[in-house]
Amino acid sequence: MTPLYEIGSEFHIEDAKGSCDLPALLTGEASGAGYATRFLRCGRDSLGYIADDILMMRGGKDKSGRLRIFMPALCCDSMILPFYVRGYEVIFFRVNADLTIDTQHLSDLIGSASGDDAPVVLVMDYYGLTPVDDAKKRIREAYPDAVIIEDVTHRVPDVRSFLKSDIAADYFIGSIRKWMGVPDGAFVMQKGAGHSIESTGETDFTTLRLQALREKKEYLDSPDRRKEVKDHFRGLLSDAEDSLDDGREPFAISRTSEGLLKSVDLSGMSAARHENFIALKAALSENEFSGDLFDILNPDATVPETPFMLPVIMHIDRIRERTSGAAGRSITRDRFESKLAARGVYAPVLWPIDAKAAGICKNAAYFAQNMLAFYIDHRYTPVHMRYAADMFGEELRVLLG
Is residue 98 part of a domain? Predict the structure, then answer.
């Protein structure tokens, strides 16, 4: 049976329809706070740019003769690889059950790293629900010369919010393409001028994604929504990701995306996301299994001005224990995700983590193995959010028999 809706997954190409010049807004706000801004192709390239900038600043290594970075255990390969390929040693620190930083573990790791009086540390506020200011404060107080990189991918539109933090980061990095229908786009904000980006122009990544986003728009606009069309643009998206080189050669943002980003309906996007987040959170909270077979991440946290997604943590082991049928006893998070997709609700897994990181931090491992993230973006309305919550609840009830 064809689902009533298709909610989530990759964006389609969006026609310019807003009055906000997003690059100009980001650049202006950053400049006012003392940061220079560069626009790159993707988050991976942005991290590669930062890794190169630190190398240039330090002449290759720190005082111990090593090159290392401290990163949260909950981070994906695309965040780690730009440092790995440049010879950095990546040291993972733990996160707490609510995904805030385990500051004591981080402090202990830095303290035991001989000669690291100016550590390089990457922090991230997941979904805008796990503040990092306390961790940044402790790092800065203990190590005034520390280099702090803050990944604000989950907070991109709320630029004034992350820039006005009491404890400034040395670098901010954010992926714009995760927020809207553009083929590429990310940024780095940094204290100081930084170095130039030599690689420019359209790449396979941009070309493939642009074609895929156009095909998805045609697919959504067509009355029959043929499966072969969907399979084709999904293949193009996969090929685009495969074309990236782990951030070895950072590319500047394409002219195509730069043009699209000059006419963004930012206020409409923020309002829709905020409304949808609240609607979905309310609908999921009303579910009979909420707080038992699944939890909303940090439900008492302040709703971000512009939410990114709504994450839930499923308790797969409990679901298996409660079921009598074979399907329920063998359920996994990935199989449940597939069941939702068959109902037209795409709730992806954003954090497949490094095996070493999983061994270091049980909280990161549990979240990575049990989380789903619901799309709440400006393509949808509260009606769609209710549908997503209903499908989620129905699939749980089917498993429980």
Answer: yes
9: left (phi over 0), alpha (psi -120 to 50) or beta: left
Same structural domain, 334 and 386 = yes
Residues 310-331 pLDDT 10s: 999 999 999 999 987 887 888 9
**Domain-located, residue 254:** no
CA dihedral 188, 348, 237, 73 (to 10 degrees): 40
- Exposure letters 134-172 (e unless 16+ CB within 10 A, then b): ebbebbbeebeebbbbbbbbbbbbbbeebbebebbbbbb
Task: Tell me which residue range forms the domain holding 124.
Answer: 22-190
How far CA 141 is from CA of 138, 187, 256, in Å, comes to 5, 27, 43
Q: pLDDT by residue (tens digit) across 70-94?
A: 999 999 888 999 999 999 999 999 9
Q: Looking at the structure, do residues 126 and 229 belong to the same domain, yes or no? A: no
* Domain tally, the chain: 3
Note whether 222 and 305 are same-domain residues. Answer: no
337 within some domain? yes
CATH code: domain of residue 81: 3.40.640.10
Least confident of 56-60, 117-121, 194-198, 341-345: 194-198
Measuring CA to CA, how many Å separate 47 from each of 39, 109, 172, 356? Answer: 12, 22, 10, 20
**Tokens 């990935």 sit at which residue?**
334
Q: And the tokens for 373?
A: 């993230």
Backbone torsions φ then ψ of 36, nearest 5 degrees: -95, 145
Angle at Cα 375 formed by Cα 314 and Cα 391, nearest 5°?
60
